[in-house]
Specification:
Length: 414
């Protein structure tokens, strides 16, 4: 069926295309804006690599818009719309793809990749790529990646985000106010991944009982920056820096600097579906404390290291993530922490899925705990961190879908 579709589009394009439509040069690939909130965009970008992806629809030659609705049987209906822009204005088309309720969303993403390829054919046949298309949608040889200097981008790959939100609640016996704001900046190229993040929050809660008012105030700030360079298909190196404060953790000011090295057991190009990585960080941490700690410190210089091992697998039968992180302070190896994290989503058989998530921490590194006994107010209002040697979180979910698998009707009425 896929080959027949491609043949149809090739034939229609050749008949309708005039000599002026072959204006796109092979060294200037089509610019595509991909808008698909329910897609694995990374997978599409990796597999459909004969176009350039842009972050603004006004910069694109083609705007791909994908929507998803739910059918009566619990299946998923995707509509892929391709809107031509600039020299392709008026050359729009769309088609649908229906997924059975027993199919995994991972399988959906793989089919959407093929649908995106198919939908690009009417545009590709009007470029110099047309000579390299075959009935099996054979892609041309991987084009040489352009470096940062060659690509014309006034923002130089930087993408920025600012955010803010607040809330207020007032009752006769309670009132509260919360605010959170920050900004992020990212720059991602084939060789570099640079991230700058900031997050600030403040909250005030007042509890009123007769003439007594109990007030709880908490605030935190966190600013981080990292730069990671791709060395080859298996190795990456980078540096992570941060500064933070948090009344809950008794930290007035913290500063960290951590060089890092990561090794991927599989080539990074295969990381969309399967990933096994080892990451090592070691560096310096300085802290000023709000109150004297249980170790008699108001500030201290620390050296810390950590090792992460992560496994991520995404397959039609489901997905698995498992990670283990061990860390310790160099001045006292007994001040350490072990963090185990697992998330599993499995299709047992048609219609039955099981979801499991768990996190377990062995905690022996609470250096910032304040000295002395906490007040009952601090404990009840959770204003300060409590001493503990472990933390456990578990969740389990099961879903089963049965009945007709052939209902592709979409009805969005009330």
């Amino acid at each position: 069926m896929l080959r027949l579709h491609v043949f149809f589009w090739l034939f229609a394009g050749i008949i309708l295309a005039g000599p002026s439509v072959l204006a796109q040069e092979q060294d200037n690939p089509l610019k595509v804006y991909l808008e698909c909130p329910d897609c694995n965009n990374s997978l599409i970008i990796q597999e459909v690599d004969i176009v350039d992806y842009v972050r603004d629809p006004n910069l694109a030659d083609i705007h791909i818009f994908v929507t998803r609705t739910t059918s009566g049987s619990g299946g998923r209906n995707y509509t892929l719309s391709f809107f031509g822009k600039k020299s392709f204005i008026g050359q729009d088309h769309s088609f649908d793809y229906s997924a059975l309720p027993t199919q995994s969303t991972t399988n959906d993403q793989e089919v959407l990749v093929e649908k995106v390829k198919l939908g690009l054919v009417p545009f590709l046949i009007k470029t110099s790529f047309a000579d390299q298309l075959a009935l099996n949608v054979k892609q041309p040889a991987e084009r040489k990646k352009k470096n940062d200097v060659q690509l014309e981008d006034k923002w130089r790959f930087w993408v920025f985000e600012v955010f803010a939100n607040g809330s207020m609640n007032k009752e006769s016996s309670k009132n509260s106010f919360n605010i959170r704001y920050g900004a992020n900046a990212d720059r991602i190229t084939q060789m570099w991944r640079v991230r700058i993040n900031s997050n600030f929050s403040s909250s005030e809660d007042n509890f009123i009982n007769d003439s007594i008012i109990i007030t709880s105030n908490q605030s935190s700030s966190y600013i981080s920056a990292s730069a990671v360079k791709s060395i080859n298909n298996h190795w990456s190196a980078g540096v992570f820096t941060s500064t933070n404060s948090a009344t809950y953790n008794n930290i007035e000011r913290g500063i960290g600097f951590f060089p890092a090295l990561e090794y991927s057991l599989l080539p990074y190009k295969d990381a969309i579906r399967k990933e096994i990585t080892f990451a090592y960080r070691a560096g310096y941490l300085y802290r000023d404390y709000l109150d004297e700690t249980v170790y008699g410190k108001l500030g201290e210089n620390l050296w810390r290291q950590s090792l992460d091992i992560n496994v991520r697998i995404r397959q039609p039968w489901g997905s698995i993530f498992a990670g283990i992180e061990g860390s310790n302070y160099f001045h006292d190896w007994e001040k350490n922490r072990l963090d185990l994290d697992a998330r599993i989503n499995l299709r047992i058989f048609n219609g039955l899925s099981v979801r499991f998530a768990g996190n377990f921490e062995l905690i022996n590194d609470q250096l910032s705990l304040p000295k002395g006994d906490l007040s009952l107010t601090d404990i009840l209002l959770q204003q300060r961190q409590l001493a503990t040697d472990h933390e456990l979180y578990l969740s389990l979910g099961v879903s089963y879908t049965f009945g007709s698998i052939y209902n592709n009707v979409v009805n969005t009425r009330l």
